[in-house]
Specification:
The chain has 326 residues and is an alpha/beta fold. The protein is built from 15 helices and 11 strands. It has 2 domains: 244 residues, Alpha-Beta Barrel (TIM Barrel), CATH 3.20.20.370; 72 residues. The longest helix has 18 residues. The chain starts with a helix and ends with a helix.
């Protein structure tokens, strides 16, 4: 009953007419698994997709959304799904489930990851922390602010803590930090990266034929604010070139690495424009609002997919959109 109220067409139409079209763009990362990260519950996701389909919600790709302008139908409750990174479990589990319900997903890939060059810096931190036999870390020795010694009991927390520090470093300093962390924690222990296997171009081409769109998440997943203007341009140009060489119809939308406001700046926005993209996605929470997106297409917010079905349905509802507007 509550789902029928949340997804009521008439109430959604009135909100869209009164406050400009609101669209929920969900962002997903890894499915739940042994990778040590918070993952998407596939049963919950399928239940959500079934509910949205049953209530007549309209799935739309991010490219369609950004090129629709004012032609979106206010009577429709549009839902958009995006997935970030490009790991094998995403293309074997998440994407096929989204395609099963014709959800028009877009996967934003880290091209160095797909090319097999290296794991992204944040994945290297995660695999190092999960692989170590140490119980504590002399963080001060590595230049990490805060407490000198960090307990490694809660490894998810430590991974996030170290990643938050690393993402703010400029490129060379970040590379140095990751190398030093590996030497400190895993000098005598093999780093286990088996749960961080990338997908491959052949699989992406198969999924593209089934309805997937693939877009750029840069080459290295480095926050643009930490790169020089020259490095930003090179990352954008090279990732775009690789995507066009490997795929038939790459997305014209860009996805900022990490994606919070502090992770990109005006230099990055201008570089994305100069690279020929029509818009860009952030990780800042919020709804796509037609009037705002028309003025600021390079800072489009998204919502992380909640763990709870009721919360996920509420995020797509007229009620939550109304609350967010206040």
């Amino acid at each position: 009953m509550i789902h029928s109220l949340y997804l009521n067409h008439g109430l959604n139409w009135m909100l869209n007419k009164a406050l400009s079209q609101h669209v929920c763009i969900f962002t997903l990362h890894r499915p739940a698994g042994p990778h040590g990260l918070n993952g998407v519950d596939l049963e919950m996701l399928e239940a959500l997709l079934q509910l949205l389909t049953r209530h007549g919600c309209q799935f739309i790709s991010i490219d369609e959304l950004l090129t629709s302008g004012n032609s979106l139908n206010p009577a429709k409750n549009y839902i958009c799904f995006t997935v970030d990174d490009g790991y094998e479990d995403q293309t074997e589990l998440l994407i096929p489930l989204l395609l099963k319900y014709h959800a028009k997903p877009t996967l934003f890939v880290i091209t160095d990851l797909i090319e097999g060059e290296s794991l992204p810096w944040d994945a290297q931190i995660t695999t190092t922390v999960l692989s170590t036999r140490h119980n504590s870390l002399d963080a001060a020795q590595l230049g990490v602010p805060g407490e000198k010694w960090l307990s490694l009991t809660d490894r998810r927390y430590i991974r996030r803590y170290l990643s938050l520090h690393a993402k703010r470093l400029e490129k060379n300093a970040r590379q140095t930090f990751v190398a030093a962390l590996k030497e400190t924690l895993c000098a005598d222990t093999p780093i286990n990266s088996q749960h961080f296997t990338p997908t491959n171009w052949e699989r992406l081409r198969e999924l593209e034929q089934q309805g997937l769109t693939v877009g750029s998440h840069t080459c290295s997943h480095s926050p643009l604010a930490t790169l020089t203007r020259e490095d930003i341009g090179e990352e954008l140009e090279r990732s775009k070139r690789i995507l066009h060489a490997q795929l038939s119809r790459p997305s014209r939308v860009f996805c900022y690495p990490v994606g919070m406001n502090e992770d990109f700046d005006l230099r990055g926005i201008e570089a994305v424009k100069d690279a020929g993209f029509i818009g860009a996605l952030t990780s800042e929470p919020g709804y796509f609002i037609s009037e705002t997106a028309a003025k600021k297409p390079f800072t489009i917010p998204r919502l992380s997919l909640p763990a709870s079905l009721n919360t996920a349905v509420r995020y797509t509802s007229w009620l939550e959109k109304l609350r967010s507007h206040q």
